[in-house]
Design a protein that fits this description.
By secondary structure, this protein is mainly β. Helix content is about 0%, strand content about 45%. The protein contains no helices and 21 strands. A six-stranded parallel beta sheet has the order 3-7-11-15-18-20, with no helix packed on it. The chain starts with a strand and ends in a 29-residue tail after the last strand.
Length: about 170
């Protein structure tokens, strides 16, 4: 899908539940390439990949978001918010999730933008350019957050990530 303004993939008002879904290869000439959700989002065993936009290329959420066993990868923003952007007051929980190889210009947040609290369990955030994350991490359990030493979410040594591909299972992973 391609939009001449905003919302290349989809825009949702109200709760969104994605199970074994793929949001890929969407573009918006302005903002929100993958999807924009106003209500609560639950995403399980899904992939958001290779979307592009000026801002908010992968996932943009205005409420609570729970992502498990999923991959957000290779999303490209021209300004900021390549992988995930969460608006002020939103909360996020990531369980067994890879947020990798998303990009935005150097000096802009490329992987992860949020003002709200984040909860990470067995999750990888990394594989992007410098200044890839911003926000506050509340709990980080067995997660590798960023290979960028300036990342405010950084927890320690970052693990390497492979390119997005089919490594087993129903959805592409990194």
């Amino acid at each position: 899908n391609s939009a001449s303004q905003d919302y290349g993939g989809f825009y949702a008002v109200g709760a969104v539940s994605m199970i074994s879904s793929t949001v890929a290869s969407n573009s918006a000439s302005q903002d929100y390439g993958g999807f924009y959700a106003v209500g609560a989002v639950t995403m399980t065993a899904s992939t958001v990949a290779s979307n592009s936009a000026r801002m908010g290329a992968g996932v943009v959420a205005q409420s609570s978001i729970v992502i498990s066993n999923s991959t957000i990868a290779n999303n490209v923003a021209a300004i900021a918010g390549g992988g995930i952007s969460l608006t002020a007051g939103s909360t996020a929980r990531f369980i067994h999730t890879s947020i990798v190889s998303n990009s935005a210009p150097s000096g802009a947040v490329s992987a992860f933008v949020s003002a709200g609290p984040h909860f990470f369990t067995n999750t990888i955030v990394g594989g992007a350019v410098a200044a890839q994350c911003a926000g506050t991490a509340t709990i980080q359990n067995f997660s590798s957050i960023s290979n960028d030493p300036n990342c405010v979410l950084r927890t320690g040594p970052s693990v390497g990530v492979a390119p997005l591909g089919n490594y087993g299972g129903g959805q592409p992973t990194a």
